[in-house]
Design brief:
There is one protein chain. By secondary structure, this protein is an alpha+beta fold. The chain has a single domain, classed as Mog1/PsbP, alpha/beta/alpha sandwich (Protein Transport Mog1p, Chain A), CATH 3.40.1000. 28% of the residues lie in helices and 40% in strands. The protein has 4 helices and 11 strands. Strand 4 and strand 5 form a beta hairpin.
């Protein structure tokens, strides 16, 4: 019963994800992400920041923050259920996405004290097979579910950039020393 809230929260809005896929495929025609300048995006609603290539579009809809560009989609949600551990949140999303791992899932510490579990592989989003990097993270009392995905070809081409984006997650206002 305790995980019901998290599972319900993690179900995606199919129409919204379909729109993201359309945007993603048009983005494949753009300049590769690695060749662009970067900017830090700060979200007051989620009290978080992360780096993305300049020119990416960001949107908050239905408690979900997305950033899209170059055929890549970044998704962040906050899960307000303290009964769900970071590892359990990660496992729930792995199951939801039918994710097949490439290697081991790892514990990670990001800037500003964010602790998480991260892994990559292939998954299914809105019926499409994608390459995905998944991060379940905790900062203070906040749980975050973050994933970044692209079609398999774009994933292979941009995996390093995608890792840079997802691992740039930090508390809003954080400045590296």
């Amino acid at each position: 019963m305790q995980n019901r809230t998290a599972v319900t929260f993690l179900k995606m809005n199919t129409r919204f994800i379909t729109a993201i896929f359309i945007s993603m495929f048009f983005g494949l025609l753009m300049v590769p992400a690695s060749a662009q300048d970067w900017a830090t995006y700060e979200s007051e609603a989620f009290d978080i920041q992360f780096d993305i290539p300049e020119g990416w579009e960001t949107e908050i809809e239905d408690d979900m923050l997305t950033a899209t560009g170059e055929g890549i989609v970044f998704v962040l949600t906050a899960v307000k259920d303290e009964s769900v551990s970071t590892k359990k949140l990660f496992d729930i999303q792995v199951e939801t996405m039918n994710m097949e791992a490439e290697g081991e899932y790892n514990e990670i510490e990001l800037s500003g004290g964010i602790l998480g579990v991260i892994g990559s592989g292939s998954g299914v989003i809105d019926g499409e097979v994608v390459g995905v990097i998944l991060l379940a993270a905790t900062l203070d009392d906040n749980n975050y579910l973050v994933y970044i995905f692209a079609d398999p070809d774009a994933f292979e081409k941009n995996e390093a950039v995608m890792v840079d984006i997802i691992t740039s997650l930090a508390p809003r206002g954080w400045v590296e020393e």
